[in-house]
Design brief:
Length: 601
């Protein structure tokens, strides 16, 4: 079986860098120990080897397809969904009382990372089902939990999130899907939804849509949006399933993730589509943010997983392909030695280290965000602190692995040269698959606006201050290690650049020039995201150094030294670029505002 992730790295990050065992002391998670979690993850890895990876290429070559009013997906999806239910991955982080395993979200994300690295076309079905079920459990009347959630967690039924519409896209203020109240307390739903991942396939006994719509007479904009449960099939009084006037109008043929179906759905074309209100009227977007934020972490995780798989495919090629000769002193080539493995060429190693630095740093960031989430829900006395950190990290955790993951896979494709561009090798599929990640769940531009325009200013800057204090704590720890002192100082030197940039931007915002204030939000996201991942790499470096000094035999010295080397690579080749990015943001010259004479032509 081809390698697509590294279990030792995952274990090192979870238990050594992020100290998962400390979290397990919490009452919510104390049913688990390190051994039981490793057994769970190994079962997920075995499932991924046996069921997911073998059909990865086939799902791309035989994509989901719409015909005769249905979307047809790979025939193994049915068994896979049931197996995921049996493994417990759909309900992994659900309370035991709700039929879940009550595992930390950190472990759940690790499990999905493994599955997505094996086959990124499949785990989204289960992930969206879990997200929809969680939304029902959190905000809907208990009767709806009892009706829908058990079958969703078992893998027999699926779930979706229905937000985008043809005329609105990400602009949820402009949604037109309507909900007309009926005498029995239900609602008549009418409208179109597009780009609905997992929106229809023949292997779900029912599909439970979590749909945003506007009740007649509701306020304009996002303040008038409500959330509804809209099943594909209604449950009749005798418990049989009956059609609910949810029609699949077609699917979207995509450049990547072609095995993961994406539907255009029509609700209420025959005026017979019933929806059930979740929570209170006009609070739908507030509720949906739970699922959206969970999905944003999941999208970042998917980017990290694809980057991981691409790295190991690139590494294998570089270790097998012979081409060119090594340079001797004076620039001479050793013609007598014959061609060398391409991994011996410095530029190939640069590209491999870039891939490794991005994917491992991204994975650590996913786990860091997950740890904050777990502490927020399990340590009530201090949950606001963890919430502030998670608020700040969420847009970065979605964006950095998505954007930099593209760069990582691109470098992997480059390592293969001409073969990388050919369908015979898997890199081109990873390249196509990862491209959607920066679009899913709010584009990079939207996440960047959230970071600079909202998170940085939240609670009078308390969110940013809390995050910087967390980073500074790690810097102080790094300075105590002679091996890491210079690296820690490099990261510390970045923090004044953030402060200086905000000192330049915030007065612009105070003057009401909001468009100018956020005009380079994506650059701010890139720079701050790099700082956050550099922080993760310093944490990795501190841990590797400490384990080396302790002579702990759990990890090989070569692996630990490699982590330290990759950390230094990230700082030299990635973090050092930030000074130029911050300089661009601080420039008084603004070239992207919509002036009449300054449009692209």
């Amino acid at each position: 079986m081809a390698a697509y992730f590294n279990m030792e790295t995952l274990k090192f990050l979870m238990f050594n860098v992020h100290k998962l065992e400390e979290l397990l002391l919490n009452e919510r998670y104390n049913a688990f120990d390190k051994e039981s979690i490793l057994l769970f993850l190994q079962s997920v890895a075995d499932f991924s080897d046996q069921d997911l990876y073998p059909i990865f290429k086939e799902m791309d070559e035989k994509p989901a397809k719409f015909s005769e009013g249905k979307i047809h997906v790979h025939p193994k999806i049915k068994d896979i969904l049931i197996k995921q239910g049996e493994l417990g991955v759909i309900g992994a982080s659900f309370d035991e009382s709700m039929g879940g395993l009550q595992l930390p979200a950190t472990v759940m994300h690790a499990a999905y990372f493994i599955m997505e690295a094996a086959n990124n076309h499949i785990p989204g079905y289960a992930g969206l089902t879990a997200g929809a079920a969680h939304l029902i459990s959190s905000f809907a009347d208990k009767k709806y939990h009892d009706q829908y959630v058990p079958n969703m967690l078992s893998g027999e039924w699926s779930g979706t999130m229905c937000l985008s519409e043809p005329q609105a896209g990400s602009g949820l203020s402009d949604i037109k899907c309507s909900a007309k109240p009926l005498d029995d307390g239900t609602f008549l739903i009418k409208g179109h939804k597009i780009f609905i991942s997992g929106g229809d396939h023949e292997y779900a006994g029912n599909i439970i849509h979590l749909l945003l719509a506007r009740i007649e007479g509701a306020p304009a904009g996002t303040k008038g949006i409500s959330l509804f449960i809209v099943p594909k099939y209604k449950i009749s009084p005798d418990q049989t399933l009956v059609n609910n006037d949810v029609i699949t109008a077609g699917d979207f043929q995509k450049m990547g993730q072609r095995g993961y179906c994406t539907a255009h759905l029509v609700f209420g074309d025959n005026d017979q589509c019933t929806g059930y209100l979740v929570g209170e009227e006009n609070k739908g977007l507030l509720y949906m943010f739970q699922m959206m934020n969970d999905a944003r972490i999941a999208v970042g995780r998917g980017g990290a997983a694809i980057a991981s798989a691409a790295y190991y495919a690139s590494l294998q090629y570089a270790q097998e392909r012979q081409q060119g000769r090594r340079l001797l002193s004076g620039g001479r080539k050793d013609e007598a030695a014959g061609p060398t493995l391409i991994i011996n060429h410095p530029d190939v190693r640069r590209m491999l280290f870039l891939q490794k630095a991005i994917y491992e740093g991204s994975l650590s960031l996913i786990l860091q965000s997950s740890i904050y989430h777990d502490r927020e829900i399990s340590e009530k006395e201090n949950n606001n602190h963890w919430n502030l950190l998670l608020e700040f990290l969420t847009p970065i955790t979605k964006t950095y692995p998505s954007e930099k993951g593209k760069l990582a896979v691109d470098n992997g494709l480059q390592i293969l040269g001409g073969y990388g561009f050919c369908a015979d090798f898997i890199l081109q599929q990873y390249y196509r698959d990862i491209r959607i990640m920066s679009i899913y769940e709010g584009t990079t531009g939207i996440q960047s606006l959230d970071l600079l325009g909202r998170k940085v200013l939240m609670e009078n800057g308390l969110v940013l201050k809390t995050m910087l204090a967390e980073i500074q704590h790690t810097i102080s720890e790094g300075k105590m290690d002679e091996r890491l002192r210079a690296t820690a100082k490099e990261l510390e030197d970045q923090l004044p650049l953030v402060e200086a940039t905000l000192a330049h931007l915030i007065p612009i915002a105070m003057k009401g020039e909001t468009e100018k204030f956020v005009s380079d939000a994506t650059l701010f996201m890139e720079a701050v995201g790099t700082i956050v991942v550099a922080w993760q790499w310093l944490k990795i470096g501190i841990t590797a150094s400490n384990v080396l000094k302790s002579s702990d035999a759990a990890f090989s010295a070569s692996m630990l030294k490699n982590k330290l080397h990759t950390m230094r690579f990230f700082y030299k080749y990635e973090l050092a670029r930030n000074k130029s990015i911050f300089k661009i943001i601080q420039s008084d010259e603004v070239l992207t505002l919509a002036e009449d004479d300054a449009f692209p032509d």
